[in-house]
Specification:
By secondary structure, the protein is of the alpha/beta class. Helix content is 39%, strand content 17%. The chain is built from 20 helices and 22 strands. This is CASTOR/POLLUX/SYM8 ion channel conserved domain-containing protein.
């Protein structure tokens, strides 16, 4: 039997549907019901000509107004006269009481629901030009700290954080661990970053940039890739490309992430980044300070900017055209990065300059009179590569990458000894991949926190010592504690032998960096902080990941720290113009120096490193001072 589609049925269906739609729809239906009651009463009074006792009959509009007043205010009928009129108005008033009561209930429920959404962090973000951070990890606090510095000159900057955590818990942790937020406001939301509906809460359509952190737990790379996939393939996404910086732990997953994200994503390969910096720092003391300076918003940064004044000049001429900043490379119109290109390369109008500067406002073409002491410039001298002995104490998932990277740089006959007590170490070391035959690898099962065990390794006989944290088998604090114990034992061994031992240590938590300073190690590579700095910088500069891929790749131009005396005579003070010219003549770019003087302030713990110095300032150098250059070998 066919159901009759009456007006009552349609109203009842619409009301049931609005019950599921929310308070706004319910308020709309209550308004419709009220209007129907008022219109019906007004029409009845107009047709029947019922009026207050002794009064004139009401027309439709007057009756409509009388009914409306009694619907909104039940006290209005107190002055009515005539029983017929009173009965009609009583019906209207009772209907009004029902509607108003229902309206109050709906409004109360709606307000409670919205407050509950706000408490749970499920309300939609209405901000624009904001930075979004997806997922939660120990790196998030350093990322936020760096973005706060970057936002100092912006108007009303906002950072939106979304993760599978309670909103209040996230806010409390950020308040406790980040400190001063300046003019930046932090907005936290709870949700699943891989879910399209939840992603809509943080409003990525109007965002400035998106940072996808690698979350804790099993298979974090899959979570990151799925989040990027949800962002770029959202059916309702914006037409303009996103600027996404995503953290990937395992380099094997990088290709899939690039396919998913395309040109919209910059990948920060966390383990490869840390491993390469550890290897470079172990072979050149103080190098970690250079990378920290380049990645830190608080000092000099890498900018990619159009410089039309360079059009038609050779790169060699352009390198010497800036006094307050340092040109290190070019980026073509396709986005391809070329660091330290040939000096004869003519700069095209579509190329962007890659410049190290303290601030984008400091990038100014031209300089004062260039002061070069040509007589002080020295030519290059051949350096014979010698075999190296390297000792790794401790082990984690970055160990295999460090071993492989080390094998790409050392001379034939070099030796690597790995000493740790992690389960299955011997089998893993036996299968470690190495590049070529220059490096032989051996393994010792040793308690690296034992002074007796360390003494048996003959530590002073090694050229370099790398101390890795047991981050795979221990939490961050216990792992760093064991690293500190190892470093203290190494300091005693060095003091007893009366020798300087080149030591580079990996720290997990930046808060332990200051405690480790008493061990007098040459360098501390703080893994979580470096990844955080890289992600924060990549969110501001879409070319940064490619720039650092080139900087840390054996095939590209790399950063070296070499004796100043190899470039210039140091018998008198020299300007950095002279050093820069000496490097330019060798096809290199001088980007800074390392001078350690007793009493000099080192507030940022860079170990005497100065990047992008003022070129016109004359300084005296000692034989142990180093020049920081960007070179191809």
């Amino acid at each position: 039997m066919k159901r009759r589609d009456t007006l009552g049925t349609r109203l009842r269906y619409g009301f049931d549907k609005s019950m599921a739609a929310g308070p706004i729809a319910l308020i709309g239906w209550l308004a419709v019901v009220s209007l129907l009651i008022i219109v019906a009463a007004a029409a009845f009074l107009a047709v029947t000509r019922i009026a207050p006792e002794g009064g004139e009959p009401l027309n439709f509009f007057e009756a409509f107004w009388e009914s409306l007043m009694r619907t909104l205010d039940s006290g209005t009928m107190g002055g009515d006269t005539g029983w017929a009129f009173r009965i009609v108005m009583l019906v209207v008033t009772l209907s009004g009481i029902f509607v108003v009561s229902a309206l109050i209930g709906v409004l109360s429920a709606g307000v409670d629901s919205k407050l509950d959404e706000l408490r749970k962090g499920r309300s939609r973000v209405l901000e624009a030009d904001h930075t979004i951070i997806l997922n939660w990890s120990p790196s998030i606090f350093d990322v936020i700290s760096e973005l706060v510095i970057a936002n100092a000159s912006r108007r009303r900057p906002r950072i939106v954080v979304m993760a599978n955590m309670d909103k209040v818990a996230m806010e409390d942790e950020i308040t406790a661990k980040v400190g001063k937020l300046g003019n930046t406001r932090i907005i936290c939301r709870s949700g699943d970053p891989t879910d399209l509906y939840d992603l809509a809460i943080v409003n990525p359509q109007t965002s400035r940039s998106v940072i996808v952190l690698s979350p804790d737990g099993d298979d974090p790379d899959s979570q990151v890739i799925k989040t990027v996939l949800a962002l770029v393939n959202d059916p309702s996404r914006r037409t303009d490309p996103y600027n996404i910086a995503a953290e990937i732990r395992d380099g094997k997953n990088a290709e899939v992430a690039r396919v998913v994200g395309g040109a919209e994503v910059q990948l920060v390969l966390a383990d490869q980044l840390i491993s390469r910096i550890v290897v470079h720092s172990s072979r050149q003391s103080g190098l970690s300070g250079v990378y920290s300076e380049l990645l830190d918003f608080d000092g000099c940064e890498i900018y990619t900017t159009a410089q039309p004044e360079l059009t038609g000049k050779t790169f060699g001429e352009a390198v010497m055209a800036y006094e307050h900043c340092t040109l290190i490379g070019l980026c073509d119109h396709k986005g391809h990065v070329n660091l330290n290109p040939s000096s004869e390369l003519v700069i095209d109008k579509d190329m962007r300059a890659i410049i190290i500067a303290e601030d984008d406002a400091a990038i100014r073409f031209g300089s004062t009179a260039i002061q070069i002491d040509a007589a002080a410039i020295r030519g290059p001298q051949p350096v014979e590569a010698k075999p190296e002995r390297t000792l790794i104490l401790g082990w984690n998932r970055r160990g295999p990458i460090i071993t492989y990277e080390l094998s790409r740089y050392v001379a034939p006959g070099s030796i690597l000894t790995i000493a740790a007590d992690t389960p299955g170490l011997e089998q893993e070391v036996a299968g470690l991949p190495v590049a070529g035959d220059n490096l032989s690898v051996s393994c010792r099962i040793t308690d690296t926190s034992s002074s007796t065990a360390l003494s048996s390794l003959d530590v002073p006989s090694f050229d370099h010592v790398l101390v890795l944290g047991y981050s795979e088998t221990m939490a961050a604090q216990p792992a760093d504690t064991r690293t500190l114990v190892t470093l203290l034992h190494l300091r005693k061994i060095a003091d007893d032998a009366g020798l300087h031992i080149s030591i580079v240590s990996e720290m997990i938590d930046v808060r332990n960096r200051e405690l480790a300073a008493v061990t007098k190690a040459d360098d501390f590579v703080v893994s979580n902080r470096l990844v955080s700095l890289m992600l924060a910088q990549a969110s501001e500069n879409p070319y940064l990941a490619a720039i650092f891929d080139d900087l840390l790749d054996e095939q590209g131009s790399e950063i070296y720290m070499r004796p100043v005396a190899d470039y210039v005579a140091i018998d008198q003070p020299l300007t950095f113009w002279t050093i820069a010219e000496s490097a330019r003549l060798r096809g290199e770019i001088a980007i800074g120096y390392r001078r350690i003087r007793a009493g000099d302030a080192d507030q940022r713990a860079l170990g005497g490193v100065t990047v992008n110095p003022l070129r016109s300032e004359a300084l005296a150098y000692l034989p142990e001072d180093r020049i920081i250059v960007l070179a191809r070998d």
